[in-house]
Specification:
The chain is α+β, with helices and mostly antiparallel strands. Among the domains are: 107 residues, Ku70, Chain: A, Domain 2 (Beta Barrel), CATH 2.40.290; 32 residues, no CATH class. A hairpin with a 2-residue loop joins β13 and β14. Keywords: DNA damage, DNA recombination, DNA repair, DNA-binding. This is Non-homologous end joining protein Ku.
Length: 285
């Protein structure tokens, strides 16, 4: 089992079958540099006090949650009152619908979580649900309550486990029409489209996340390391790479020239491989 603490414990329910599971965040929050605000004259970190206008600093135990139903008018809620709100989804994720794996528009996806069985007794049922989803190429839909709100979620196979992805509600997604309405509906010119299509085909390859690096974070780490080195302090990291920067090509004036130049720049090996394949096929025929 992972060393991380689960962010949710409960059960996945498929009809009359209930499977005890745990959820773990699939992403790491500490992978990027974070900064604190520092008071330059003293070199000390800036802290923020909770202050009420006309009252001054207050203690945390004097604070309640409030919903602003009108300007400056609030309904106050105690933590116990909020905790008393009964939701089945706080402890149970019931799979109420199944859809094709590609039916959900990517714009709805929010965060990803690994789902694992709580113990060995839960594994048999867990494997059945996982393999059934894989065999049918379906995604299970349901709702789950955690961290103070209820989410729509999608459940699908991931290696030997399951992946749960929280989804945005429909009213949380902005409509695209106001942004795209000013864009012409006319099609691209065929000769330009042909060259752009060839360029895309030559740059097509299987997705490998490891090939992409966070150059901005690397540059920030390098900057911090240089600052520490000048002070004789320990480096933040030793595996920092300088980010690669594309050379400026000047202003692009002719779209066709730019596309053709890009196509020629990606020719090389793939072009040769393509010729070789054609020659082989010709001989075989």
């Amino acid at each position: 089992m992972p060393s991380a603490r689960p962010i949710w414990k409960g059960q996945i329910r498929l009809s009359l079958v209930a499977i005890p599971v745990e959820l773990y965040s699939a992403s790491k929050s500490g992978a990027r540099l974070s900064f604190r605000q520092i008071h330059e004259p003293s070199g000390k970190p800036v802290k923020y006090e909770k202050i009420v206008p006309g009252v001054g600093p207050i203690d945390s135990d004097e604070i309640l949650k409030g919903f602003e139903y009108e300007k400056n008018d609030f309904v106050l809620l105690e933590d116990e009152e909020i905790d008393a709100v009964k939701l089945e989804t706080r402890k149970t994720l019931e799979l109420v619908q199944f859809v094709g794996g590609c039916e959900i528009d990517p714009i709805y996806f929010d965060k990803s979580y690994y789902v694992v069985p709580q113990d060995e007794l839960a594994e048999d049922a867990f494997r059945v649900v996982r393999d059934a989803l894989r065999t049918t190429e379906k995604v299970g839909l349901g709702q789950i309550a955690m961290r103070g709100r209820e989410y729509i979620c999608a459940l699908k196979p991931c290696g030997t486990g399951l992946l749960l992805e929280t989804l945005h509600y429909e009213d949380e997604i902005r409509k695209s029409d106001p942004f795209f309405s000013g864009i012409s509906k006319s099609k691209a010119e065929k000769d330009l489209l042909d060259v752009a299509t060839q360029l895309i085909e030559r740059k097509t390859a299987p997705f490998e996340a490891g090939k992409f690096k966070d150059h901005y974070t690397q540059a920030l780490r390098a900057l911090v390391d240089r600052k520490l080195k000048s002070k004789g302090k320990r480096k933040v990291s030793t595996d920092t790479e300088e980010p690669t920067t594309a050379e400026s090509k000047g202003n692009v004036i002719d779209l066709m020239d730019a596309l053709k130049s890009s196509l020629e720049g990606t020719g090389g090996r793939k072009k040769a491989a393509s010729k070789s394949t054609k020659t082989t096929r010709k001989k075989a025929s």
